[in-house]
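Annotated sample (chain length 164).
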Amino acid sequence: MVVVYDDWPVAAAFAFLFAVAMLRAGATYALGRGARGASARSERTTRLLARPEVVRAERVVGRFGAPAVTLCFLTVGVQTAVNAAAGLLRMPLRRYLPALAVGAAIWATIYVTVGLAVLSAVWGGRPWILGVALAVVLVVAVVARVVRRRLDRAGARPADAPEA
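Output written by the structure step:
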C-alpha cells in the first residue's frame, strides 16, 4: 500500500482533499450567488463586488465559463475569485458542478503527489512549526483588520478605495 503523509493511504488523502476542495469552492459559489441579491442592501457587498479581482474573474468566467472554473484550480490566489464570480454570474449548476468536480480532482491530485510530500519534508517530525505558522497568520489577519477599521473610522481612507 502506498502511504502519503505519515500513515494516510493515498486514496484516503485524495478523498479528503477532494472533499475539502468541493466544499470550499462550492461554498464560495453559493456565497457569490447570494451576494448578487444582497448587493443592493449592503454597501460593503457593493464595494466587494466592485473590487478589481472580482471584476476580472467575472470577465474570465463570463467569457470561458466552466473551463475557467476547472482551470482555476491550477492557480494560486484565483480560485476564490473565479468560484465567487461563477456564483455572481449565476452559472447553472449543471455546468458548474462537473467543472468543480474535475477541478477539485486536479487540485487533490496535485496536493497528494507534490503538496503533502513538501509538507512532510518541511515539517517532518516538527508539527509545532505548523502551529507557529498558523499563529503568525492569525496575528497578521487580526492586526490588518484592526488597522483597516481604525482607518475607516478616522476617514483616512476614501470609501471607494480597495481594501488591502
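Annotation: The helical segments are 10-38, 43-49, 52-64, 66-71, 79-88, 93-123, 128-154.
Annotation: Residues 93-123 form the longest helix (31 residues).
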